[in-house]
Specification:
Length: 539
């Protein structure tokens, strides 16, 4: 039986994990060659970003064929081998399902373009607005309008993301049938989990101008999302792990999607804690993050999900976010301690933790200084938009260096020399590979990597951490993030010092047993700079 409280999921960005044939692009054989490493870390499941054939305008999130492997990553035999080899080591494979849209190179879309009505109904083809121009004023998530005109049809099609990613019409039962067939295909191969990309955008409310927004209220958490999710769950059964990526969701809806009784998703990614450094919600303007805002946001969500019986995917890093160590910690000073503190916050809260490749060794933002280094479509579009808005080259590059998704997509740092590829990597490596790499981490017992292993072991041994209640502890000092996890008689206290100063801790914890600390010799009365400490209440 699937037990979400016991899962620890590791996200692999295949393009940047391990290249096996020197073409500079990571691949499935590369992943297979690193399974022993992942087993040693102690994770239970590997989520792979899309590996299907794709023209690659959004690094594989523009899928041209849902039932094949892109030759750059290998083939179906390789995938089968990966599933078997992972299973031997106690890990399941979760694949990324991008069903809000297909690539415009997908066979369905091509047939739609050639005039087949049946396939036009797979998408949203709409007539121009009465006065001409796009049917609505909505904005694409990657900038500009989200409608693309097709002259020979005289119609526009909807793309909430890039124009190479056409939105699918889930209202059409034929589309849902195709999707079930895709799921069956992968289940048959042995896949045990699915991550559903932007799944709360699949049910569109109405096609009208948005008078006070970018259009998101017309397609976010639409009326039929839950119905569609229930159909999927009924089809795949209860033992398949599913995680939904939820864009701009409310806590109420997030809990509803993930409550076991509702039989929709096993759990969900939500992003509010990753917007605490967006001034007025704007990603492409810089602002230092505010610790209290971060803590209150995390706490509010933890509490709401607990009260309403939902289940969160816990994460600070993924392929869409700059590295959390550079963002919420410090990548120049006390790096290892900051990385451990963020690890503890990910692995000891209520939900299922996700580790994104490289965070377990303390990888940081690449912070490219030159536009040529960027590969990501969103970053390149944003560059143009910022420049058009009058920002200087220098200011613009500074913003990209902090905010670009490419910060998370640089090659995995296996050795001082890199170790990702024998060839030319598809995206530049982070030059700190000389000091931040797997080889050195394995040798150093105090490394971030070994701390992750300890934390994982600790989590697995504790009911309180895996499935206990969470409760905030208010400390005298406001810069400590502290909470309690409890289950039966077991009570665990987690303390995180979000400053680079020594801070005294309350006396009532003095008799607690130290289970784990990011400092070699934890001081009973004080937390060291950016220390995290996990304590157990003794009888
Ligand atoms: O992301 C969807 C999403 O809304 C974001 O996290 C998005 O990347 C962000 O707003 C941009 O800053 C998913 C995938 O994770 C992402 O990689 C894809 O680009 C996107 O869907 C489209 O499929
Ligand atoms: Ca390769």
């Amino acid at each position: 039986m699937l037990d979400l409280t016991k899962e620890i999921i590791y996200q692999i960005y295949p393009r940047s994990f391990q290249d096996s044939n020197g073409d500079g692009i990571g691949d499935i054989q590369g992943i297979i060659s690193r399974l022993d490493y992942l087993e040693m870390l102690g994770v239970s499941c590997l989520w792979l970003n899309p590996v299907y054939p794709s023209p690659g305008c959004d690094n594989g999130y523009d899928v041209a064929d849902y039932k094949e492997i892109d030759p750059v990553f290998g083939n179906l035999q390789d995938m089968k081998k990966l599933i078997e080899e992972a299973e031997k080591r106690g890990m399941k494979i979760m694949l990324d399902m991008v069903f809000n849209h297909t690539s415009t190179e997908h066979g369905w879309f091509k047939r739609a373009l050639s005039g087949e009505k049946k396939y036009q109904d797979y998408y949203f083809f709409k007539a121009p607005a009465p006065g001409g121009g796009p049917p609505t004023n909505w904005k694409s998530k990657f900038g500009g309008t989200c409608w693309e005109y097709v002259p020979n049809l005289g119609l526009y099609y909807l793309h909430l993301f890039d124009k190479g990613q056409a939105d699918l019409n889930w209202e059409n039962p034929q589309v849902r049938k195709e999707i079930m067939e895709v799921l069956d295909f992968w289940l048959e191969l042995g896949v045990k989990g699915f991550r559903f990309d932007v799944i709360n955008l699949i049910s569109k409310r109405a096609f009208e101008d948005d008078s006070d927004g970018d259009g998101r209220s017309y397609y976010t958490d639409g009326p039929k999302v839950e119905q569609y999710l229930k159909e999927i769950r009924a089809h795949i059964g209860e033992d398949i792990l599913t995680v939904g990526e939820l864009s701009s969701v409310s806590a109420e809806r997030c809990a509803a999607y993930t409550k076991p009784e509702n039989r929709e998703l096993s759990m969900a990614f939500h992003f509010h804690h990753l917007k605490v450094d967006y001034p007025d919600g704007e990603k492409w303007r810089l602002m230092p993050f505010d610790f209290n805002h971060l803590r209150e946001t995390l706490h509010e969500w933890d509490m709401k999900m607990q009260e309403k019986g939902g289940w969160s995917a816990l994460f600070f890093n993924c392929h869409d976010q700059p590295r959390s160590l550079s963002r919420f910690g410090n990548d120049r000073r006390y790096q290892a301690r900051w990385a451990k503190l963020l690890a503890s916050l990910t692995l000891t809260r209520r939900g299922t933790p996700y580790i994104y490749q490289g965070e377990e060794i303390g990888m940081t933002n690449a912070g490219f200084e030159c536009l040529d280094d960027y590969r990501d479509v969103e970053s390149l579009n944003s560059y143009q938009i910022l420049r058009d808005n009058g920002l200087s080259e220098e200011e613009t590059l500074q913003i990209l260096a902090a905010r670009s998704r490419d910060n998370a997509r640089t090659p995995m740092q296996w050795r001082r020399e890199g170790g990702f590829t024998e060839g030319e990597p598809w995206i530049s490596e982070n030059q700190n590979k000389r000091t931040v790499n797997v080889e050195d981490s394995l040798k150093d017992p105090e490394s971030v990597f070994h701390f992750y292993r300890e934390l994982i072991r600790l989590r697995k041994s504790s009911d309180a951490i895996q499935k206990g209640r969470i409760e905030m502890i208010r400390m005298d000092n406001d810069s400590i993030y502290a909470y309690k996890r409890s289950y039966g008689d077991e009570e665990i206290v987690c303390l995180h010092n979000f400053t680079e100063n020594k801070l005294p801790i309350r006396r009532d914890f003095k008799d607690h047993q130290v289970l784990l600390s990011s400092c070699e010799k934890p001081d009973q009365t004080c937390l060291s700079p950016c220390e995290c400490r996990i304590l157990k209440k003794t009888a």
